[in-house]
Every structure is written in C-alpha cells, then in structure tokens.
Design brief:
With about 475 residues, the protein is an alpha/beta fold. Strand 4, helix 4 and strand 5 form a beta-alpha-beta unit. The longest helix is centred in the middle third of the chain and has 21 residues. The C terminus is likely disordered.
Length: about 475
C-alpha cells in the first residue's frame, strides 16, 4: 500500500527533506513537492552544515524524481516583496488552469505508479499563503479521490517577534483559515510546531531534555518534527501493518474531532540496560512526551482517543526479568510481552480511552545530514549514560515515542485563536482581504473554528462565559 506525499511551502520543505531521509522504506511512498524558488543547488552536491542550510534542498540527499518538483515562479521564498503571504493568494493560484493542470498531471503520474493508493499525506505551511494552497489542494483531493485517506500536517516554524502588527495578524489569519479548511477536507489534521502557542504573543518554544537545538535554525526545528512525523505515521506505512490510513483517521476523528494534537519524546529516555517497564514507570503519572502542536502542556493525561508508537527498544528489553521469588516493582513488570507492557501503561495513563499502540524494535536513524544536537549523555544508540561521554562520536540512532491524540487541550488552543481575532476589527487589514478572501467567508471560518473547538470540551468542564468574552 502506498501514500502520495505533497509538500507545500518552504518550511514544509525542511521537514519533508528530513523526513524523506529518515524513512527506511521511502520507496513505498510517492512524493510531490510544491515550493517557491529558488530551491538551491543540486541535491547530489549539497552541504548539510548549519551555517549553509538556507533552503531545504541545501542538505537534501534523497534523489527526487524530476517530475516531483513544482515551482511557483510568481513568488519568491525570501525577501520582503513578492511573497506568497496571504491565504487568498495561495487559494487563487490553484484556480488558474496553468497551475492546476500541472499539479494534476504530476499527481496522476505518481498515483498511477501505486499498486494500491491508500491516501495522501500533506505537509503544509500554515503561517503564510501556502495555507491557502493547502486548503485548495485538500479540497481537490477530497472531491477527486473520495474514500481515500487525507492526513494533513500543518507546519509552523518557530515564530520570532517581528514587531510588525501586519505580519503578525497575517500569520494568525493564515493559521486560522488553514486550520479550518484543511480540517474540513482532510480525514485528519494535525498542527505541528515547536512553538508554545500560535497566537499574536506566542509562548517560548518547547525544550527537549536531551536535545540542544538552535531555535533560530529551520534546519534544527524541522529535524525534530520530522523524527516525530516519521514515527507517528508508522502504523499505516509499514508493509506488515494491518491498519490503513483511513482506519487510523476514523479511530481518532469521531464526533467531529478532525483535529488531533501531537506529542513526542525525542529521544525516549531509556538508560542503557534498563527495561521498558523501568523506563515507563519513571514517569509516574506524567505523560512521557512533549507537546508538538502548540497546545501547551496537558493538565492531565485524559484524551478521547490516541495512537501511540514506541520504537527503538530491543526485544530483550521489552520486559523485566526479575529473579524467582522476588516481588515485581510495579504492575508493568509482570507482563510477558512489550506490547502488553505498552498497552497496559496507556490504559493506566488514560483509563477508558481508545488507545492504538505500536511497538517497533527498529530505532529512528539520525545519521548525517540529520543535525548532531544531542546531549553528551546519550550513547551512539541514543540511550542514557551514567555520565557524559568523553568522545565526540555521533549519535546514530535514537528511540522515539510519539502520540497522536484527540485531546481536550485542543479546545483551549483552538478557542484562543478564535478569541484573538474576534476581539479586533479585521477590516483594518484590507490588503489581506484584497488577496481574494471575502470578509463574510472569513467570519464564517471563525464561527467554524469556534464550533470545532467545542468538540473537545469535556462534559465535566464548566461552561465558559464565551459569549461575554466575544462581546468585549
């Protein structure tokens, strides 16, 4: 079974470049790239050092099919002028026969190569006009390939304080419109970002205990998201998997919850020689992953449904072997398989939640050009050492734990975006609407965002005075 991947935007290119290189079974997926030029040097002659990776093709080592790149010549990827910066600009591009015909031609070329097409994976920038491109692409795919899965990943680079209200409001409006439209036409939509939040005053980027990344480098932040993406998508990408893309989406998107939140432990902290029960018990009642969807930290471990993947723990460490006659240190130490350990851990963490879990022995391989930003407390296989290593040997692979969750944290995250735009008179940004979005359509999208946020309210939560907030 194959899935066609579309990469829409500059930052999506960074994540896609890392993802393609991380995939151990990359030949099973078709790739269609859509980005703004210039795209850099030939991928076979590139460097991958931090100081040189200005665009994603500067370090891409995977050979891309010549028909997989679609350049938008009308816009550039940097500079302050002639940028694809508004949702309406991106949406209107695919109303033009020239762009639409070329995109469809490239898509059909790869789809015809699939032995069985289970669906599409879309990596889309949310902060600029590519959110409009993604909205139109998902709508076209939904209409033409009804019944196939469409999993959309909304990507946002780490946000810098621009001090420019126009740019900040453009980013927020693009994000809101992209979220509404992509979730509407996708089987499942997941925002991915290291930002603490996506509002006008975004919170600081998340920190990872064993990764020292430079928040100013897309090369670094995109690598983290790519490692999470590579692991989260395993359930439907493996040849041996019994779960399809559509089945995964249907397990998570019930009751109108088309948006999911991502979390990951990169790397998953396991001390060398310790077992999986030992590692999971060390977290007590806290979730073992960090949020990757700009929704903030979870107050508790409750969610409506989740898909969890753990990779990189050898079978010999899946269970705990304690001497006969000794008392196991926890309930997790008595199970006889790693699958039982992980499944029962998730049941303990989120009782009554539909949990789909996968346990893989193969780790996430992080050889060059993946950045070497790992803590010296990790050995070559990504396991924790008692003391920092004294040599400079590169980390070659890491265990990774990821979670895709239909979670109540999305209520707060989505509703806060709605409130920020509801408080201002968006007509002040006339240039945004001149790009092709009607004010009534924007207000309808805001209403849809609010409705979407209500799907994630827990029944036990008290009603918020939302109408009062709207009238402020």
């Amino acid at each position: 079974m194959a899935a066609v991947t579309l990469q829409l935007g500059s930052y999506a290119g960074f994540v896609g470049a890392h993802w393609w290189q991380l995939q151990e079974n990359a030949s099973s997926d078709g790739h269609v790239g859509l980005g703004a030029p210039p795209l850099g040097k030939d991928a076979s002659q590139v460097c991958h050092l931090e100081g040189r990776g200005q665009v994603w093709s500067d370090y891409l080592r995977v050979h891309l099919h010549p028909r997989s790149i679609f350049e938008i010549q009308r816009y550039n990827h940097d500079g302050d002028s002639n940028r694809l910066e508004a949702f309406g600009q991106g949406e209107s591009l695919l109303r033009e026969p020239m762009y639409l015909d070329e995109l469809e031609d490239k898509l059909h070329f790869f789809i015809e190569e699939c032995d069985y097409l289970q669906g599409f994976q879309i990596l889309c920038d949310m902060h600029d006009g590519f959110s409009g491109v993604g909205a139109k692409v998902t709508e076209l795919l939904c209409d033409e390939y009804s019944g196939r899965g469409i999993l959309s990943w909304g990507l946002t680079p780490i946000i810098c304080n621009t001090g420019d209200p126009c740019k900040d409001f453009y980013r927020l409006m693009n994000t809101v419109l992209g979220t509404v439209h992509l979730s509407r036409h996708s089987s499942l939509f997941c925002p991915l970002s290291l930002n603490g939040s996506l509002g006008l005053r975004p919170q600081a980027p998340i920190t990872l205990p064993y990764i020292h990344y430079d928040a100013s480098l897309n090369y670094h932040s995109s690598a983290i998201l790519a490692a999470a993406l590579e692991t989260m998508t395993v359930p439907y990408r493996l040849h041996t998997s019994q779960l399809s893309m559509m089945q995964l989406a249907e397990a998570l998107n019930f009751s109108g919850r088309k948006v999911v939140a991502a979390g990951a432990a990169i790397p998953f902290s396991v001390s060398r020689g310790h077992s999986l029960p030992d590692a999971l018990c060390s977290y007590q009642h806290a979730v073992p992953w960090k949020p990757l969807s700009s929704c903030g930290e979870q107050k508790d471990s409750f969610c409506f449904a989740q898909s969890v993947v753990l990779r990189g723990i050898g079978k010999e460490n899946h269970i705990s072997n304690f001497p006969p006659g000794t008392q196991p240190s926890s309930a997790l130490h008595v199970y006889e398989t790693g699958e039982e350990v992980l499944g029962n851990y998730l049941n303990m963490l989120s009782p009554g939640t539909l949990s789909i879990s996968h346990l893989l022995q193969s780790p996430c391989k992080v050889q060059s050009p993946y950045p070497q930003f790992f803590s010296p407390l990790l050995n070559k296989q990504g396991f924790l050492l008692d003391k920092p290593r004294s040599h400079s040997a590169a980390v070659e692979s890491i265990p990774v734990l990821t979670a895709l969750q239909s979670s109540p944290v999305l209520h707060t995250a989505l509703y806060s975006l709605y409130k920020e735009l509801q408080k201002v008179d968006v007509r002040r940004w006339a240039s945004f609407f001149a790009a092709g979005i009607e004010l009534d359509d924007f207000q309808e999208a805001l209403h849809e965002l609010r409705t979407l946020s209500q799907c994630y309210k827990r029944n036990s939560e008290p009603d918020e005075s939302e109408d009062e907030a709207d009238s402020d």
